Amino acid sequence: MAASLPLGAALARVDTLRTANPKLDQLDGFSGDPNFMLSLARGLTVLEAFSERKRPLTISQVAQRTRLSRASVRRCLYTLEQLGYVSQEGGQFALRPRVLHLGHAYFSSTSLVSLAQPVLDALSATIDATCALAILDDTDILYLVRSEVQRVLTHALGMGSRLPAYCTSSGRLLLAHLPPAALEQFFARAELRPRTTQTKISRAQLELAFASARELDYVLVDEELEPGLRAIAVPVRSLEGQVVAGISVSVRSADASEQEMVLRLLPAMRDAAADIGQMIAT
């Protein structure tokens, strides 16, 4: 059995799929703190405004996404350009490969990634389906490990990719195990909007789903993230019993019914979650 590892450093923030949605009150609240670098916070917020869809952005677009002033955005982008993190052409800005150093440093220093990858690869081979391991990061899930048999999502996902927690199987599972105060903060910050006609977006619906997740110890989400996509997730618990991550398997709805997913996939997923959990100490 592999040695246990601390998970505290594993909960980092990387934004790839969704645009940044910063809360200015959170930044302004630090304005009186002599140890808080407001300019650095603004620069990171500007970086997070770029998504993995590779569309260049103008200063106005970044300002709109970040809710920062155009003057602040202009200074941030100028600094990031001088440091090699963004490039500019015709008044439009795009990320440069140098930003990969930021994410690579995190993933290369997180033992959970290297320990979980072979477990997920074995799970994927056993069930012949795409599986992933994700953690909760604010209102999103952050993918740490993924083993893909075939692409089932519209967008390609890899390490560091993010999706909204409320309409994903892993996200809903992890939200279900948050303490009440943290769950209140989630509902205060989350942007709940329908992704499909099936998406649950009311607090009452989600709280019922959370209760079901705690009772069943798994979550099945049917066409709430994308039409034609069905996903199931199980919790990964540390040696102390704390839910720290989720393993999900995604399939096309036409390929497996909900009952088939529970009967065929759930036992192997739980075994994989237990194997990874034995490596984690909180």
TrEMBL record:
Record-annotated HTH iclR-type domain positions: 37-97
Signal peptide range: none
A Pfam short name: IclR_C
SUPFAM superfamilies documented for this protein: GAF domain-like, Winged helix' DNA-binding domain
All residue ranges annotated as the IclR-ED domain in the record: 98-282
Keywords annotated in UniProt: DNA-binding, Transcription, Transcription regulation
Protein name: Pca regulon regulatory protein
The gene coding this protein: pcaR_2
